[in-house]
Amino acid sequence: MRRIILLCLTAVFMLASGVAWAQERTVTGRVTSAEDGSALPGVNVVVKGTTNGTVTDVNGNYTLTAPSEGVLVFTFIGLQSREEAIGTRNTVDIQMTQNVQQLTEVVVTALGVEREEKSLTYAVQDVSGDALTQARETNVVNSLQGQVAGVQITNSSGAPGASSRIVLRGASTISGSNSPLFVIDGIPIDNTNYGDAYESGGSDMPNGAADINPDDIETISVLKGPVAAALYGNRGANGVILITTKSGKDTKGFGVSINHSTTFDTPLRLPDYQNSYGQGSSNTYFEYVDGQNGFGDGVDESWGPPLDRGLEFIQFQDYEDGTPSPWVSHPDNIKDFYNVGKTINNNVAISGGDGANNSFRLSVSDMRQDGIIPTSTMDRTTITGSASVLLNEKLDASLSGSYITSHSDNLITVGYNNENPVQQFLWSGRNVDFNALKNYKKLPLAPAGTAAAGTPLNWNNQFQNNPYWVLDNNKHVYDKDRIIGNVKLGYKFNDWLSAYVRSGVDTWSSKNADRAAIGTNSFLEGFYQEITRRFTEVNHFFLASFNKKYNEIGVNFNAGGNIMEQTYTNQVSELPALQLPGVYNLSNLKSGYTAVNTNRLDREKINSVLFNGQLSYKDYLFLDFSGRNDWWSILPKDNNSYFYPSASVSAVLTDIFEVNSDALTFLKLRAGWSQVGSAGGLNPYSIQQTYSFRTDAWGDVPLLYNPQTLNNPNLKPETVTGIEVGLAAKFLRNRISLDVTYFDQTSKDLIVEVEVSPASGYEFAWDNVGEIRNKGIEIQLGADLVKTSDLTVGVNVNFAKFNNEVVSVNNIDGDEGAIVLGGQWNVNLQAREGHPFGVLFGPGFARDDDGNIIHENGLPVIAQDEYKVLGDIQPDWTGGVSLNVGYKGFSFNTLVDAKMGGDLYSMTTTWGRTAGVLEETLKGRENGIVGNGVMQIGTNEGGDPIYGPNAVAVTAEAYNHTAYSQNVAESSIFDASYVKLRQIMLTYKIPNKVFGRLPFKDVSIGFVARNVALLYSKIPHVDPESAFSSEDKDQGLEFGQLPSTRSLGFNINFKL
Amino acid sequence: MSKYIKHIFAGALLMCTAISCDSDFEEINTNPNAPVEAPGDLLMADIQRNAMNVVYSTFIGGEMGEGWVQHWSWVQYNDAERYSPRQTSIEDTWDVYYEDVVSDARSMELLAVEDENKALEGAAKVMQAFGYSLLTDLYGDIPFTEAIKGGESNFTPAYDPQETVYNGILTLLEDANTLLASGEGSIDGDFDLIYGGDVTKWQKFANSLKFRALMRISGKRDVSADLQQLVTRPMFSSNDDEAKMAYLATQPNANPIYETIVQGNRLEFKVSDVLVNTLTNLNDPRLPVYAAENDAGEYRGKPAGYEDVPNDTYNYNNVSGIGAFYLEPDLPGYFMSYAELEFLKAEAAQKGLISGSAAEFYTGGIKASLDFNGITDHADYLSGVQYNAANGLQQIGTQKWIALFGQGLEAWTEWRRTKIPVLTPAAEPIPSTIEIPSRFPYPATEQTTNKASYDAAIERQGENVLWTKVWWMP
User: Fold this and answer.
1) Is this complex's ipTM strictly greater than 0.90?
2) Which residues pair with A385 in a beta bridge?
């Protein structure tokens, strides 16, 4: 409509100008913003139909020579283009308005192809880079939380360097990773988590994609299912995350953009502790002798004497002078342990170009993060550059690349481990003033005869070392250097045929140095380990594109090929004991011990040919099809070639039926089918059987053995076959948009290490046996509630409902097979037939026929021999609601996201209750507890027990020790549903005119708060969003959570 | 149009085939990290280490062997002593012996056959025989004929009756004797932790082990001819010949007893009152070797069992720990001792199964044990325990029980056969049956991974509990 008006206007002007004068003259003018009247520099001004043009200067002024009958075309990215007839004027001033529509119309699809949203035949959702840079999450995966329907994200913890798990639509493999493939500018990158975190220790490391600098991201496009990801063949089973980096494209001249942000982190949630009873197991007396052999000082529980009642006992702070000190509570002793974390981020980007064919962008980013746990840090510097040139009309060349260097002083140990400081806040004495341990260099040493002998004194020397000493000495240092980049050469044969080749690389090396000082509880002789890793993946890609329109039929066809080569090596050197304290060098091996050295080299190669195409009819009917054939080196030689097809259609009904309604502006239906693949957990060399060397030799004798896993020369890849149908609709003149997708995808031939009878000589054998089905629905809803020139109010809602089922995991009939993924104490995390992926399987309480817990002598009875499914990690639905308000220069954004369903086995509750430190353990301290349930009150004629209400009282200590321990998981498995206020952002964009002649422009100042509040949770004490790492095996399990953080901070952006 | 697409794709495919899309894949997917082929000798050390680490594991040979035969006792964490063993120990024994002992010994045998190395082939058969006898003695009926055939896709091997297993073991050892006597082939001494490649000693081991196997089933069949034939062959003739493996001074290759009790600071491991009383009554010089003094400077054992430990009667301070000699990191691991052979011969002679003097064998056994325990003065003790044929079997059994201190599984197995000395079951056992266990239950994993075979074995042998007797038991 606007276009028509414009054309009319042009016509009117042209008519008004009367006879065309062939005369050239100089035209000047100023281009300003319709929103705030500020000058718009860099706007292209071209005489229509010619190459004659210029750009506006810093003040928005331009001058050019044009014929009087000419029409000037004003263009600038993000602004509505304008055409203006010159007529008789010598001065043509215009105002330009922002183009809101344009930003959402183009979507990046497979192979980085930008497509009009209208023509899409499958579900793709994208997120703009702005959302990421404003959110200021250090791990880019976290910033997708709540933004995209059907994306499940779990941030492991609040520690610097913590990984985040991302799964699209649901788990599709058992043995392998369920992470989608990450692709940056067409180059697949490694998103593996190489950390060694598990339920009993180790440290989490950033997942590979966490290296990506959010400041360099233009858009992220999420290809959720196999139909959208079909072109990625055997790497597309989990969907694809396409990242497009910023470039200097559309820059005219030279621009500098600067961004600074500082955020401060505090724990989002700490356990609720009791502050009424102190350390020990006797409620009348306590005496610290050496932290191990005194009265109650070796007990790391709080069933001791009452606090704040005027009692005095000798405590650890009285170790030297022996004078009792007051037995009082320290309600903030845990809170005070945590620092205020701080993240400072600076980015400078310079971009330039001629506004059309040649451009570059250079960017340097520096991120420094200090975590809330003392000594924990993560620093990252990213240097990025990109350039593209049009050599002549046919040949264009471009390159882009990033160097990323990351470092952490200390990746904090997780899980049930002496080195996780949170452990001694749970196995703890509530009278302990942890701050008094901070200055450990001035403390005496724990005496001989205690487990912590020779290390600085601690409140308990039997099970724990001084937590500050551990953090300062037992460091887990991490370094990583990474280069991601590509070069591309394109050739345009003619209007309808073009081709390009691109070579790209993702290569990194990393080093972990893990130290344990002599005297560490779990490494009395000390320990030192260095792990170095190298990874390189090179891709050479070729694509030819055919693009032509025959009357009303549009034909687009691409065909090409790819060669992928991947190499991974690692080397582990370990000293099991140190000769001299404090020297962390691989030569400092204690006499009589043997160092352990191992290394590994993995290589694989995938060769592929592929094609895809789209036929369109009248721009309202679209048919997509694609095919890819992969030859994969890790598969059996005679069986390594697989073909992955897809087909999908869409129809724009509003265009077909020429619906011209303000109510229903746009309606499209789409449907698709596809097949993609995966190797699951299959590694290189899993076809051929070999012998293997033990990592520890027998002195100087190498130990060779037959591995416990039988390789299988007949394996084939896993396949995911899926359908999806959907609709996209816009209502009320595009004010409301709706996108709904239903998907149903089945993963078959899952490659599983099947547990076999050891009497076969093997414990596991690789086989294609598993099947998983994922069904669900994804809904996105957007509404512009208010849209005036001053005020805009918009709401975006996304929602996804999931149904995941492990159909089978082995070939045994009638057996409810299960594969163990991970676990914690007596609970296994399993893929179990007939259940969602990731069930928590463990011991529960014995119950009567009515489901009441049976008690004996007042204590609940545990059904030790009947392990059962107690929960699962699969959410029922996830969703997010964001509200965006713009008023003049202000913009306000808030995001609430929810995950409903899914469970967490929280052993913070288990051990915190056993140890009597949690608030709930106050119940019955004085008068005892009568457990809720039944007890046997007789026997019926058949000899079966008769139950009546439990009436026997037991002490709180006895009750908690029985009802909460590793022997019974049921009492600590909680519904992990949550609603979080994920983000609040307030930004003010200062009008450019404020700065007058100063070189600043586009200055914006923003306040940002992330993880602001946990609005709804059924789990006590911890953030329900928790895991030991991003790996599947570490999901649904929690103990000693390194607290997640709430961050508050500000952003400053400006351009020069 | 679709024709055009087909052509392009066909062309691309053709191109790929022409230049071959997978020509270098075989090379790329060849494992550079581990050998596809290896000399058989290289497997020997790991087989031997694994075999001994189970026998000397404090949670296997310790809790179930030494505990149930009442050499050791516990002042805390004593569930196993009260006949509720750790499920992981039950599983580990099965897993390690099948996956790492008999399976790897079978691989070693096949490699030796390929290399026509008869000496190594013989030693490989001895290791298999040792592995299978430990498995069947502990569990009863076990997979044998169909075992370790996962490579041929048999993942659910049927269980054989124990008699079949024993027949197989005897054949393995008979073949081993022939092979080892052939004078052909050799064993690389670097990887042989028992004999450093001494083939003659391997032959002695084969025959001594066969003697033990025959004695074990001697209650079920007449083995006298076989035993008599063995006596004429090379067998252990001194402690120099016996099959033992020296542990190293440091972790992870130190004796597991040291690693758990000393390194792991697990001081609840104590000695039994039966041990202390028996040795005290005999005025046995091995008492201070086997046991440490308690805090009061006395030797005091604890009876098996009791729920509420530690308590005033039995605690860390007033019960004797295990003697320092047995807590040394380099305490050797025994496959079979010369002393045991001598006692078995004494029993055979006493029962008339072989010719020779029971008294001499008896005395030889005691001397061998005293020597191992560092006691050089034999005379006094020997005069106190002189052989008396009327009470001979009792004496032999008691001395064997004493000599097998440290070798928990073998001591318990021999006790199950002879029931000498008389032992009282543990006080306050966890299960209701008050009886010293007769076997290990099958691991739970067999019920899920090999159910049909497992069910058939239970059907034949009896309930899968600790008290079901194995075939050779009286």
Assistant:
1) yes
2) A362, A401
